Each structure stands twice: as C-alpha cells, then as structure tokens.
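Reviewers of the previous submission asked for a worked example of the structure-prediction workflow described in the proposal, so we include one complete record here. The input consisted solely of the amino acid sequence. No template or homolog information was supplied to the procedure at any stage.
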Amino acid sequence: MRIAGLQKNSTLDFPGLFSAVVFFAGCNYDCWFCHNAQLLHNPPLMDEANILEFFERRAGLIEGVVLSGGEPTLQDDLIDFGRKLKRMDYKLKLDTNGSRPEMVGRLLREGLLDYVAMDYKAPLSIYPKVCDADASGVLETLELLQGAAKEGFQYELRTTAIPDLAPSVLLRMAKEMPPLPRYALQLYRHVNDARSESNSGLIEIYTPAKLCEIAGAVHEFQPNVIVRA
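From that input alone, the workflow returned the following structure tokens.
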C-alpha cells in the first residue's frame, strides 16, 4: 500500500463518526485546486504495518477510518487493507473521484464500505479542462452508489466551488444529477498553483455567504444540498 499520510483524529471527515484519515499516494487526475497535491508525485511513504498497528491500538476509541488521497481506488491492495480494518470493527468511508467503478463495486460487494463521498468536479463535458482527465467512470460509479442506496447505503456527491464554476454552471450541475441523498457544495480555498492564476474564465472566489445563496437556488433540484465552508 502506498500510504502517504495519517490524520489521527477527525470529527469532520466521516459524517457522525469520530475517525482517522489515511491518505494514499497518487492520483489519475491533476486538478489545479487540489489541496493534497503533495501526495501525487512520489511522496515519502509510511509503513503499512505501522499504520495497522496504530489502528489496533485505537480500536474502540476511533469509530471510523476514511480512505482518502490522492485517489485510494488506484491501490491494488485496497480490498485487503479494508478487510483488515473491518476485522478490527471499524466503519469505512471512501473518498473517491469516481474514476474506478470496478474497484468501488468490489468494495461494495464485499460489504467493506459504510459511506462514500464522490467528487463531482464540474460538468462532465469539461472534466479534461478542470481535471486534466476525462470523466470516464463517474456516471458508472454513481449508478453503483444509487443501487446500493436502495439497500440503505449512504453516500454523497461533493463539488468544490472553484472560481471557474459560475453560479449558472453550479446550477446546471445540480440539474444534471438525479436527486441525491446529500450534495455538498464546498468552499474553495486558494492554493499556490500557477494554474489558479492563469485559468481562463475565472469569475470570483466565492464567500461563504455567496455559496449559501447559490445553495438556495440549487435546493430546487437537490433538496439535500448542504454547504461546507
């Protein structure tokens, strides 16, 4: 496993649960607004045995583990890693860009996941501009999550309101998706990337108040919209 980081305590990353976050190295996207860009290209790695030992010691104190990144589903050993955590009685949340539906499907079929947060970066047609990759797999992953939700599984989609996405675009994105159990609009925070200064079509950096206003309009199409500021 290419583990590049561990956040030992979090009350924010797993809805309703006190958790820890495991960050995996590598991603098949290259989003200019990524706050974990240091994980993308050969970061120092942590020993998997040490990580598992930490979770053994904290069993009963931490309720959940968030598998984040980077893009966790690129890890070939993710299934085995999830099994080990499940044997310790942890609930597991997956943060994913949705590009690997085959891995998400395997995790769901084995009952290893308790929650999924999937990124919805932009209108699917402009993923190449925003992510330097197409949106392959995203709709298929959403279909898997919708199917699991019929059996009570919990998931959300989330969009970071980057300056490229005008209010009209955010509204169009909300219309493009079926009503979701949770749709999170997340506040963009500036990153030191030359592309954040040179991207064409920058509109404004949204304030929390403005994002709440947009969420009010989005509510017509996504009644379970929330704002994370």
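The chain has eight helices and eight strands. We consider this example representative of the routine output the project will generate in years two and three.
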